[in-house]
Write a structure and sequence with these properties.
Elements lengths: L10 E7 L6 E3 L6 E12 L8 E12 L8 E10 L8 E4 L5 E5 L12 E15 L7 E13 L4 E11 L17 E12 L4 E11 L35
Parallel strand pairs: 4-6, 10-12
Antiparallel strand pairs: 1-5, 1-8, 2-3, 3-4, 5-6, 5-7, 8-9, 8-11, 9-10, 11-12
């Protein structure tokens, strides 16, 4: 019997990050190459810009162990995000060759709140319309999209869901009917929040491209837990506030 291949439905992310601590380089048998990990955070203001909260993220890259990030700098990073729905810290596996130092950290640094851009491919597994109080948006659409991506360090596929909010603005309201359960979609949006109770990332949609016709979806009771995840579930904890001297 042929094994079912896990779908490749990744979520790519581009954003700006300030390390919370020095990078940790993991060396095996004095190897000069390995995984370099750095604690950082997403700056989020919620879907309506009504909050100000930082959420921890682990920055990971497979590179020369000398390629570390400094706590006194702001970096532009691009890579694949895996945000499991079990309360564990999201991981951004960034591409070392695209790392760009933007500026020194400090009181005059730019505001990157809600500026992380997600470009993803996934399968719609649920949708619901939600009435809003805003006069210019009317009814918005909340869509849960299933993703699956390869974890290079653990060498397993990771499955996770992301909630996408499609505003009811004039340029997006006509796309609401395109979000049908079982349809493969390519979405561009901004990461704006993490829902603590549902343990899911929240993205505001900017653009949509429909990839396929409707397919049969096997529903899984929420929250969707990651396959091959052996660590105990812990809550996503907001990162500590950065105090600039």
């Amino acid at each position: 019997m042929t094994a079912v291949r896990a779908p490749n439905h990744p979520a790519f992310l581009n954003g700006h990050f300030q390390p919370l601590s020095d990078s940790v380089a993991e060396s095996v048998r004095a190897n000069q190459y390995g995984y370099v990990k750095t604690a950082s955070f997403f700056q989020c203001a919620g879907s309506n810009g009504e909050k100000n909260e930082d959420f921890e993220v682990e920055l990971v890259t497979n590179t020369a162990l000398t390629n570390t990030l400094s706590t006194d700098s702001i970096y532009a990073l691009s890579g694949q995000m895996i945000a499991l729905n079990n309360g564990s810290t999201p991981v951004l596996s960034y591409i070392q060759d695209t790392v760009l130092r933007i500026s020194a950290s400090g009181p005059d640094q730019p505001d990157f709140t809600n500026k992380s851009v997600v470009t993803s491919l996934g399968m719609v597994i649920s949708r619901r319309e939600v009435a809003t109080q805003a006069l210019d948006t009317g009814t918005q659409l909340e869509v849960i999209v299933a993703h699956c991506d390869w974890d290079g360090e653990e060498r397993v596929h990771r499955r996770f869901n992301i909630k996408y909010i499609v505003p009811g603005t004039k340029n997006l309201v006509k796309t609401h009917t395109l979000y049908q359960v079982g349809r493969e979609v390519n979405i561009i949006g901004r990461l704006v929040d993490f829902h603590m109770e549902d343990q899911i990332a929240i993205v505001i949609v900017i653009k949509l491209a429909v990839q396929t016709q409707l397919a049969k979806v096997h529903r899984i009771a929420p929250p969707l837990m990651a396959e091959n995840c052996t660590s105990s579930a812990t809550l996503l904890i907001p990162a500590p506030t950065i105090v600039n001297n």
